[in-house]
Amino acid sequence: MSDKPIWHPFTQHGLGDDIPEVVRAEGAAIHTRDGQRLIDAISSWWVTTHGHCHPKIMTAIAEQAQQLDQIIFAGWTHEPAETVAAGLRRMLPDELTRVFFSDSGSTSVEVALKMALGFWAHRGEGRHRILVMEHSYHGDTIGAMSVGARGVFNAPYDPLLFDVGRVPFPEGNGQETLDALEAECRKGAAAFIVEPLVLGAGGMLMYGAGLLAEMRRICTAHGVLFIADEVMTGWGRTGTLLACDQAKVVPDILCLSKGLTGGAVPLAVTMAAEPIYEAHLSEDRAKMFYHSSSYTANPLACAAAAANIGIWKSEPVEARIRDLSARQADHARALEALPAVRNVRWCGTIAALDLGGEAASYLSDLAPRLMRRFRGEGILLRPLGNTVYVMPPYCIDEADLGRVWTAIAEAAETLE
Ligand SMILES: *Cc1c(COP(=O)(O)O)cnc(C)c1O
Protein backbone atom coordinates (compact mmCIF):
# COMPACT_ATOMS: atom_id res chain seq x y z
CA MET A 1 0.00 0.00 0.00
CA SER A 2 1.20 3.46 -0.85
CA ASP A 3 2.61 5.70 1.89
CA LYS A 4 1.91 8.88 -0.07
CA PRO A 5 0.09 11.42 2.09
CA ILE A 6 -2.59 12.61 -0.31
CA TRP A 7 -6.08 11.24 0.29
CA HIS A 8 -7.75 11.67 -3.11
CA PRO A 9 -11.45 12.43 -3.65
CA PHE A 10 -13.74 9.65 -4.91
CA THR A 11 -10.74 7.29 -4.83
CA GLN A 12 -10.60 3.91 -3.10
CA HIS A 13 -6.92 3.79 -2.17
CA GLY A 14 -7.43 0.23 -0.95
CA LEU A 15 -7.68 -0.95 -4.56
CA GLY A 16 -4.10 0.14 -5.12
CA ASP A 17 -4.65 1.85 -8.48
CA ASP A 18 -1.73 4.04 -9.47
CA ILE A 19 -2.40 7.76 -9.66
CA PRO A 20 -0.90 9.43 -12.71
CA GLU A 21 0.72 12.81 -12.27
CA VAL A 22 -0.33 15.55 -14.66
CA VAL A 23 2.28 18.19 -15.38
CA ARG A 24 0.81 20.31 -18.14
CA ALA A 25 -2.36 20.94 -20.13
CA GLU A 26 -3.38 22.94 -23.15
CA GLY A 27 -6.57 23.05 -25.20
CA ALA A 28 -8.30 19.69 -25.00
CA ALA A 29 -5.20 17.77 -23.90
CA ILE A 30 -3.40 16.95 -20.68
CA HIS A 31 0.16 15.62 -20.36
CA THR A 32 1.45 13.27 -17.67
CA ARG A 33 4.84 13.07 -15.98
CA ASP A 34 5.69 9.94 -17.94
CA GLY A 35 5.12 11.72 -21.25
CA GLN A 36 1.61 10.54 -22.19
CA ARG A 37 -0.75 12.95 -23.95
CA LEU A 38 -4.40 12.33 -23.10
CA ILE A 39 -7.52 13.86 -24.59
CA ASP A 40 -9.54 15.44 -21.80
CA ALA A 41 -12.95 14.13 -22.88
CA ILE A 42 -14.64 15.12 -19.59
CA SER A 43 -13.32 18.69 -19.36
CA SER A 44 -11.46 17.79 -16.15
CA TRP A 45 -14.72 16.88 -14.42
CA TRP A 46 -16.98 19.29 -16.30
CA VAL A 47 -15.18 22.53 -15.58
CA THR A 48 -12.98 23.37 -18.58
CA THR A 49 -15.10 25.13 -21.18
CA HIS A 50 -12.89 26.96 -23.72
CA GLY A 51 -9.90 24.66 -23.21
CA HIS A 52 -7.02 24.32 -20.73
CA CYS A 53 -4.75 27.29 -20.09
CA HIS A 54 -6.67 29.72 -22.28
CA PRO A 55 -4.13 32.54 -22.71
CA LYS A 56 -6.60 35.34 -21.85
CA ILE A 57 -7.56 33.68 -18.57
CA MET A 58 -3.97 32.83 -17.66
CA THR A 59 -2.86 36.38 -18.41
CA ALA A 60 -5.72 37.87 -16.38
CA ILE A 61 -4.72 35.80 -13.34
CA ALA A 62 -1.03 36.72 -13.75
CA GLU A 63 -1.80 40.43 -14.06
CA GLN A 64 -4.20 40.40 -11.13
CA ALA A 65 -1.51 38.67 -9.07
CA GLN A 66 0.63 41.81 -9.41
CA GLN A 67 -2.15 43.98 -7.94
CA LEU A 68 -4.30 42.44 -5.26
CA ASP A 69 -4.29 38.86 -4.04
CA GLN A 70 -7.04 38.65 -1.45
CA ILE A 71 -9.22 41.00 0.54
CA ILE A 72 -12.04 40.60 3.05
CA PHE A 73 -15.32 40.87 1.10
CA ALA A 74 -17.68 41.55 4.01
CA GLY A 75 -18.08 45.31 3.72
CA TRP A 76 -15.29 45.70 1.11
CA THR A 77 -15.19 45.39 -2.65
CA HIS A 78 -12.73 45.35 -5.57
CA GLU A 79 -12.73 45.89 -9.30
CA PRO A 80 -12.54 42.25 -10.51
CA ALA A 81 -15.64 41.35 -8.46
CA GLU A 82 -17.51 44.43 -9.69
CA THR A 83 -16.57 43.58 -13.29
CA VAL A 84 -17.81 40.00 -12.92
CA ALA A 85 -21.08 41.07 -11.29
CA ALA A 86 -21.74 43.69 -13.98
CA GLY A 87 -20.84 41.19 -16.71
CA LEU A 88 -23.20 38.56 -15.29
CA ARG A 89 -25.99 41.11 -15.06
CA ARG A 90 -25.49 41.94 -18.74
CA MET A 91 -25.35 38.32 -19.91
CA LEU A 92 -28.06 36.76 -17.77
CA PRO A 93 -31.80 37.43 -17.43
CA ASP A 94 -32.70 40.87 -16.04
CA GLU A 95 -34.73 39.34 -13.20
CA LEU A 96 -31.57 37.98 -11.56
CA THR A 97 -30.51 41.26 -10.01
CA ARG A 98 -28.16 40.20 -7.20
CA VAL A 99 -24.86 38.34 -7.28
CA PHE A 100 -23.52 36.53 -4.20
CA PHE A 101 -20.00 35.09 -4.48
CA SER A 102 -18.67 31.85 -3.02
CA ASP A 103 -16.09 29.31 -4.07
CA SER A 104 -17.60 26.00 -5.18
CA GLY A 105 -20.73 24.54 -6.66
CA SER A 106 -21.64 22.90 -3.35
CA THR A 107 -21.31 26.21 -1.56
CA SER A 108 -23.40 28.00 -4.17
CA VAL A 109 -26.13 25.43 -3.45
CA GLU A 110 -25.83 25.89 0.32
CA VAL A 111 -26.13 29.64 -0.26
CA ALA A 112 -29.20 29.14 -2.47
CA LEU A 113 -30.90 27.00 0.18
CA LYS A 114 -30.07 29.51 2.92
CA MET A 115 -31.36 32.38 0.77
CA ALA A 116 -34.63 30.52 0.20
CA LEU A 117 -35.09 29.73 3.90
CA GLY A 118 -34.10 33.29 4.85
CA PHE A 119 -36.62 34.65 2.36
CA TRP A 120 -39.47 32.79 4.05
CA ALA A 121 -38.23 33.34 7.60
CA HIS A 122 -37.87 37.10 7.17
CA ARG A 123 -41.34 37.30 5.64
CA GLY A 124 -42.66 35.59 8.74
CA GLU A 125 -43.72 32.41 6.97
CA GLY A 126 -42.21 29.25 8.34
CA ARG A 127 -41.72 27.48 5.03
CA HIS A 128 -38.66 25.26 5.13
CA ARG A 129 -39.41 22.10 3.13
CA ILE A 130 -37.23 21.69 0.05
CA LEU A 131 -38.40 19.78 -3.00
CA VAL A 132 -35.95 17.90 -5.19
CA MET A 133 -35.86 15.62 -8.21
CA GLU A 134 -34.93 11.95 -7.90
CA HIS A 135 -31.33 11.15 -9.06
CA SER A 136 -30.20 14.77 -8.55
CA TYR A 137 -26.72 15.79 -7.51
CA HIS A 138 -26.05 19.16 -5.93
CA GLY A 139 -22.71 18.68 -4.18
CA ASP A 140 -21.04 16.90 -1.29
CA THR A 141 -21.54 19.18 1.72
CA ILE A 142 -24.25 18.14 4.18
CA GLY A 143 -26.95 20.49 2.85
CA ALA A 144 -26.13 19.74 -0.78
CA MET A 145 -26.15 15.98 -0.04
CA SER A 146 -29.51 16.35 1.69
CA VAL A 147 -31.12 17.70 -1.47
CA GLY A 148 -29.36 15.14 -3.68
CA ALA A 149 -29.95 11.46 -4.37
CA ARG A 150 -29.34 9.14 -1.44
CA GLY A 151 -27.15 6.13 -2.04
CA VAL A 152 -23.82 4.53 -1.40
CA PHE A 153 -22.15 7.96 -1.64
CA ASN A 154 -23.83 9.33 1.45
CA ALA A 155 -25.13 6.30 3.39
CA PRO A 156 -22.79 6.86 6.39
CA TYR A 157 -24.03 10.43 6.76
CA ASP A 158 -27.68 9.68 6.18
CA PRO A 159 -28.74 10.20 9.82
CA LEU A 160 -27.58 13.82 9.56
CA LEU A 161 -29.22 14.66 6.23
CA PHE A 162 -32.44 16.64 6.37
CA ASP A 163 -35.72 15.43 4.97
CA VAL A 164 -36.90 16.65 1.56
CA GLY A 165 -39.88 16.09 -0.76
CA ARG A 166 -38.93 14.08 -3.84
CA VAL A 167 -40.48 14.03 -7.29
CA PRO A 168 -39.61 11.24 -9.74
CA PHE A 169 -37.27 11.79 -12.67
CA PRO A 170 -39.46 12.37 -15.76
CA GLU A 171 -40.28 9.24 -17.78
CA GLY A 172 -42.36 9.29 -20.96
CA ASN A 173 -44.29 12.55 -21.15
CA GLY A 174 -43.28 13.39 -17.59
CA GLN A 175 -46.85 13.76 -16.35
CA GLU A 176 -46.11 11.72 -13.22
CA THR A 177 -43.33 14.14 -12.31
CA LEU A 178 -45.54 17.18 -12.85
CA ASP A 179 -48.36 15.65 -10.81
CA ALA A 180 -45.97 14.80 -7.98
CA LEU A 181 -44.51 18.31 -8.03
CA GLU A 182 -47.99 19.80 -7.95
CA ALA A 183 -48.93 17.60 -4.97
CA GLU A 184 -45.71 18.45 -3.10
CA CYS A 185 -46.19 22.17 -3.77
CA ARG A 186 -49.76 21.94 -2.43
CA LYS A 187 -48.40 20.56 0.86
CA GLY A 188 -46.36 23.75 1.13
CA ALA A 189 -42.67 24.12 0.36
CA ALA A 190 -39.97 26.77 0.51
CA ALA A 191 -38.26 25.89 -2.75
CA PHE A 192 -37.74 23.34 -5.51
CA ILE A 193 -34.12 22.81 -6.55
CA VAL A 194 -33.41 21.20 -9.91
CA GLU A 195 -30.67 20.57 -12.46
CA PRO A 196 -32.17 21.95 -15.69
CA LEU A 197 -32.29 19.54 -18.70
CA VAL A 198 -29.39 17.27 -17.63
CA LEU A 199 -28.84 15.49 -14.31
CA GLY A 200 -25.06 15.18 -14.35
CA ALA A 201 -23.74 12.94 -11.60
CA GLY A 202 -27.05 11.04 -11.58
CA GLY A 203 -25.93 9.51 -14.89
CA MET A 204 -26.32 12.23 -17.54
CA LEU A 205 -30.08 11.77 -17.44
CA MET A 206 -31.89 14.14 -19.80
CA TYR A 207 -35.38 15.59 -20.01
CA GLY A 208 -37.02 18.17 -22.25
CA ALA A 209 -37.29 21.94 -22.02
CA GLY A 210 -41.09 21.71 -22.12
CA LEU A 211 -41.08 19.83 -18.82
CA LEU A 212 -38.69 22.33 -17.28
CA ALA A 213 -41.07 25.13 -18.27
CA GLU A 214 -44.01 23.23 -16.77
CA MET A 215 -42.13 22.65 -13.50
CA ARG A 216 -41.37 26.36 -13.32
CA ARG A 217 -45.03 27.17 -13.96
CA ILE A 218 -46.20 24.87 -11.14
CA CYS A 219 -43.72 26.38 -8.66
CA THR A 220 -44.80 29.90 -9.60
CA ALA A 221 -48.46 28.98 -9.17
CA HIS A 222 -47.78 27.86 -5.59
CA GLY A 223 -45.29 30.55 -4.67
CA VAL A 224 -42.55 27.92 -4.30
CA LEU A 225 -39.11 29.38 -5.09
CA PHE A 226 -37.48 27.81 -8.14
CA ILE A 227 -33.75 27.19 -7.73
CA ALA A 228 -31.83 26.26 -10.88
CA ASP A 229 -28.56 24.46 -10.14
CA GLU A 230 -26.69 25.24 -13.36
CA VAL A 231 -23.28 24.45 -11.85
CA MET A 232 -22.75 21.85 -14.59
CA THR A 233 -25.27 22.91 -17.25
CA GLY A 234 -24.31 26.60 -17.28
CA TRP A 235 -21.82 28.29 -19.62
CA GLY A 236 -23.01 26.67 -22.80
CA ARG A 237 -22.83 23.01 -21.84
CA THR A 238 -26.35 22.21 -23.03
CA GLY A 239 -26.08 24.37 -26.16
CA THR A 240 -27.28 27.65 -24.67
CA LEU A 241 -25.61 29.90 -22.09
CA LEU A 242 -28.04 28.57 -19.48
CA ALA A 243 -30.05 25.37 -19.86
CA CYS A 244 -33.02 27.40 -18.53
CA ASP A 245 -32.83 29.55 -21.68
CA GLN A 246 -34.14 26.63 -23.78
CA ALA A 247 -37.29 26.51 -21.65
CA LYS A 248 -37.49 30.31 -21.60
CA VAL A 249 -37.65 30.21 -17.82
CA VAL A 250 -35.87 32.39 -15.30
CA PRO A 251 -35.27 30.89 -11.87
CA ASP A 252 -35.68 32.81 -8.61
CA ILE A 253 -32.22 31.65 -7.60
CA LEU A 254 -29.43 30.48 -9.93
CA CYS A 255 -26.26 28.57 -8.98
CA LEU A 256 -23.21 28.86 -11.24
CA SER A 257 -19.67 27.59 -10.75
CA LYS A 258 -17.59 25.12 -12.83
CA GLY A 259 -17.35 27.10 -16.12
CA LEU A 260 -17.57 30.50 -14.40
CA THR A 261 -13.79 30.93 -14.60
CA GLY A 262 -13.57 28.90 -17.80
CA GLY A 263 -12.65 26.08 -15.42
CA ALA A 264 -9.29 27.55 -14.42
CA VAL A 265 -9.74 28.36 -10.71
CA PRO A 266 -12.51 27.89 -8.15
CA LEU A 267 -15.31 30.44 -7.95
CA ALA A 268 -19.08 30.31 -7.70
CA VAL A 269 -22.01 32.69 -7.66
CA THR A 270 -25.55 32.39 -6.46
CA MET A 271 -27.75 34.90 -8.26
CA ALA A 272 -31.05 35.98 -6.77
CA ALA A 273 -34.15 37.78 -7.97
CA GLU A 274 -34.89 41.06 -6.25
CA PRO A 275 -37.61 39.78 -3.82
CA ILE A 276 -35.09 37.35 -2.28
CA TYR A 277 -32.64 40.19 -1.68
CA GLU A 278 -35.39 42.52 -0.46
CA ALA A 279 -36.53 39.99 2.14
CA HIS A 280 -33.07 40.32 3.72
CA LEU A 281 -32.95 44.12 3.31
CA SER A 282 -33.68 45.88 6.57
CA GLU A 283 -32.20 48.11 9.23
CA ASP A 284 -32.33 45.03 11.42
CA ARG A 285 -28.94 43.31 11.56
CA ALA A 286 -30.64 40.05 12.46
CA LYS A 287 -31.95 39.88 8.88
CA MET A 288 -28.62 40.25 7.11
CA PHE A 289 -27.51 37.24 5.06
CA TYR A 290 -25.27 35.34 7.45
CA HIS A 291 -22.99 33.60 5.03
CA SER A 292 -19.38 34.03 3.99
CA SER A 293 -16.26 32.02 3.37
CA SER A 294 -12.71 33.28 3.75
CA TYR A 295 -12.07 33.46 0.02
CA THR A 296 -15.43 34.89 -1.05
CA ALA A 297 -14.89 36.72 -4.36
CA ASN A 298 -11.14 36.14 -4.29
CA PRO A 299 -9.66 38.73 -6.70
CA LEU A 300 -7.52 36.20 -8.63
CA ALA A 301 -10.56 33.99 -9.21
CA CYS A 302 -12.69 37.00 -10.14
CA ALA A 303 -10.04 38.12 -12.65
CA ALA A 304 -10.31 34.68 -14.27
CA ALA A 305 -14.12 34.94 -14.34
CA ALA A 306 -13.94 38.43 -15.85
CA ALA A 307 -11.64 37.05 -18.55
CA ASN A 308 -14.08 34.20 -19.19
CA ILE A 309 -16.93 36.69 -19.63
CA GLY A 310 -14.67 38.64 -21.98
CA ILE A 311 -14.05 35.51 -24.05
CA TRP A 312 -17.81 34.95 -24.38
CA LYS A 313 -18.05 38.48 -25.75
CA SER A 314 -14.99 38.57 -28.01
CA GLU A 315 -14.68 35.01 -29.36
CA PRO A 316 -17.18 32.94 -31.38
CA VAL A 317 -18.02 30.77 -28.36
CA GLU A 318 -21.64 30.20 -29.39
CA ALA A 319 -20.59 29.07 -32.86
CA ARG A 320 -18.03 26.67 -31.34
CA ILE A 321 -20.71 25.23 -29.08
CA ARG A 322 -23.14 24.81 -31.99
CA ASP A 323 -20.47 23.09 -34.04
CA LEU A 324 -19.37 20.77 -31.20
CA SER A 325 -23.01 19.96 -30.37
CA ALA A 326 -23.68 18.87 -33.96
CA ARG A 327 -20.52 16.72 -34.04
CA GLN A 328 -21.39 15.13 -30.69
CA ALA A 329 -24.89 14.26 -31.92
CA ASP A 330 -23.46 12.68 -35.11
CA HIS A 331 -20.91 10.60 -33.20
CA ALA A 332 -23.45 9.47 -30.62
CA ARG A 333 -26.06 8.57 -33.26
CA ALA A 334 -23.50 6.44 -35.09
CA LEU A 335 -23.22 4.15 -32.03
CA GLU A 336 -26.94 3.52 -31.73
CA ALA A 337 -26.69 0.41 -33.92
CA LEU A 338 -24.20 -1.38 -31.64
CA PRO A 339 -25.87 -4.23 -29.69
CA ALA A 340 -24.10 -3.43 -26.41
CA VAL A 341 -25.15 0.22 -26.50
CA ARG A 342 -28.41 1.51 -25.00
CA ASN A 343 -30.07 4.86 -24.31
CA VAL A 344 -27.94 6.97 -26.61
CA ARG A 345 -28.68 10.60 -25.75
CA TRP A 346 -27.26 14.06 -26.20
CA CYS A 347 -27.95 17.61 -25.18
CA GLY A 348 -25.76 20.40 -26.51
CA THR A 349 -22.10 19.51 -26.01
CA ILE A 350 -22.92 16.50 -23.79
CA ALA A 351 -23.46 13.03 -25.20
CA ALA A 352 -23.98 9.84 -23.21
CA LEU A 353 -24.89 6.17 -23.59
CA ASP A 354 -25.30 3.14 -21.38
CA LEU A 355 -23.16 0.07 -21.97
CA GLY A 356 -23.90 -3.59 -21.55
CA GLY A 357 -26.75 -5.31 -19.77
CA GLU A 358 -24.99 -5.41 -16.42
CA ALA A 359 -26.72 -3.96 -13.38
CA ALA A 360 -26.04 -0.24 -13.46
CA SER A 361 -24.31 -0.28 -10.12
CA TYR A 362 -21.84 2.42 -9.30
CA LEU A 363 -19.84 -0.19 -7.42
CA SER A 364 -19.48 -2.57 -10.35
CA ASP A 365 -15.98 -2.63 -11.75
CA LEU A 366 -17.10 -1.85 -15.30
CA ALA A 367 -16.45 1.88 -14.90
CA PRO A 368 -12.90 1.57 -13.54
CA ARG A 369 -12.08 -1.12 -16.09
CA LEU A 370 -13.26 1.13 -18.91
CA MET A 371 -11.43 4.10 -17.45
CA ARG A 372 -8.15 2.17 -17.39
CA ARG A 373 -8.73 0.95 -20.94
CA PHE A 374 -9.40 4.49 -22.22
CA ARG A 375 -6.38 5.82 -20.32
CA GLY A 376 -4.20 3.29 -22.09
CA GLU A 377 -5.52 4.71 -25.35
CA GLY A 378 -4.67 8.28 -24.40
CA ILE A 379 -8.17 9.36 -23.40
CA LEU A 380 -9.45 10.71 -20.10
CA LEU A 381 -12.99 9.37 -19.65
CA ARG A 382 -14.60 8.53 -16.31
CA PRO A 383 -17.80 6.55 -16.78
CA LEU A 384 -20.59 6.90 -14.22
CA GLY A 385 -21.44 3.27 -13.47
CA ASN A 386 -22.22 1.84 -16.90
CA THR A 387 -22.90 5.26 -18.39
CA VAL A 388 -20.16 6.51 -20.69
CA TYR A 389 -20.39 10.19 -21.52
CA VAL A 390 -18.32 12.65 -23.53
CA MET A 391 -18.20 16.27 -22.38
CA PRO A 392 -15.13 17.85 -23.96
CA PRO A 393 -13.81 21.42 -23.90
CA TYR A 394 -15.40 23.43 -26.73
CA CYS A 395 -12.07 23.72 -28.56
CA ILE A 396 -11.64 19.98 -29.16
CA ASP A 397 -10.77 19.28 -32.80
CA GLU A 398 -12.37 16.59 -34.92
CA ALA A 399 -9.29 14.34 -34.89
CA ASP A 400 -9.36 14.13 -31.08
CA LEU A 401 -13.14 13.88 -30.82
CA GLY A 402 -13.19 11.11 -33.43
CA ARG A 403 -10.56 9.17 -31.46
CA VAL A 404 -12.67 9.39 -28.32
CA TRP A 405 -15.76 8.00 -30.06
CA THR A 406 -13.79 5.28 -31.84
CA ALA A 407 -12.41 4.16 -28.49
CA ILE A 408 -15.93 4.03 -27.03
CA ALA A 409 -17.24 2.04 -30.01
CA GLU A 410 -14.36 -0.44 -29.71
CA ALA A 411 -14.95 -0.82 -25.96
CA ALA A 412 -18.65 -1.42 -26.62
CA GLU A 413 -17.80 -4.10 -29.19
CA THR A 414 -15.77 -6.04 -26.62
CA LEU A 415 -18.83 -6.16 -24.33
CA GLU A 416 -21.23 -7.74 -26.79
C1 LIG B 1 -20.38 19.61 -9.65
C2 LIG B 1 -21.75 19.98 -9.23
C3 LIG B 1 -22.00 20.56 -7.97
C4 LIG B 1 -20.92 20.73 -6.94
O1 LIG B 1 -19.92 21.58 -7.34
P1 LIG B 1 -18.49 21.54 -6.60
O2 LIG B 1 -17.75 22.69 -7.17
O3 LIG B 1 -17.90 20.20 -6.96
O4 LIG B 1 -18.76 21.67 -5.15
C5 LIG B 1 -23.27 20.98 -7.70
N1 LIG B 1 -24.27 20.82 -8.58
C6 LIG B 1 -24.08 20.25 -9.78
C7 LIG B 1 -25.23 20.13 -10.72
C8 LIG B 1 -22.83 19.80 -10.14
O5 LIG B 1 -22.63 19.18 -11.31
Automatic annotation (TrEMBL):
Reaction(s) catalysed (UniProt annotation):
(8S)-8-amino-7-oxononanoate + S-adenosyl-L-methionine = S-adenosyl-4-methylsulfanyl-2-oxobutanoate + (7R,8S)-7,8-diammoniononanoate
Q: Which residues bind substrate?
A: 45, 137, 258, 292, 382
Q: Any idea what this protein is called? A: Adenosylmethionine-8-amino-7-oxononanoate aminotransferase
What cofactor is this protein dependent on? pyridoxal 5'-phosphate
- Return the Pfam families for the record: Aminotran_3 (PF00202)
**From its record, what is one biological process in GO terms?**
biotin biosynthetic process
Q: How does it assemble?
A: Homodimer.
Which residues of this protein are annotated with the site description Participates in the substrate recognition with KAPA and in a stacking interaction with the adenine ring of SAM? 10
- Look up the record and report any one GO term of the cellular component aspect: cytoplasm
Matches recorded under CDD domains: OAT_like
Q: Kindly give the SUPFAM superfamilies that the UniProt entry links to this protein.
A: PLP-dependent transferases
> To which protein family does this belong?
Belongs to the class-III pyridoxal-phosphate-dependent aminotransferase family. BioA subfamily.
Q: A GO molecular function for this record? A: adenosylmethionine-8-amino-7-oxononanoate transaminase activity
Explain the purpose of this protein: Catalyzes the transfer of the alpha-amino group from S-adenosyl-L-methionine (SAM) to 7-keto-8-aminopelargonic acid (KAPA) to form 7,8-diaminopelargonic acid (DAPA). It is the only aminotransferase known to utilize SAM as an amino donor.
Assigned EC number: 2.6.1.62
Organism, as annotated: Pacificimonas flava
Q: Where in the cell is it found?
A: Cytoplasm
Q: Which residues cross the membrane?
A: none
Q: What pathway is it annotated to?
A: Cofactor biosynthesis; biotin biosynthesis; 7,8-diaminononanoate from 8-amino-7-oxononanoate (SAM route): step 1/1
Q: Which residues bind pyridoxal 5'-phosphate?
A: 105-106, 229, 293-294
List residues modified as N6-(pyridoxal phosphate)lysine: 258
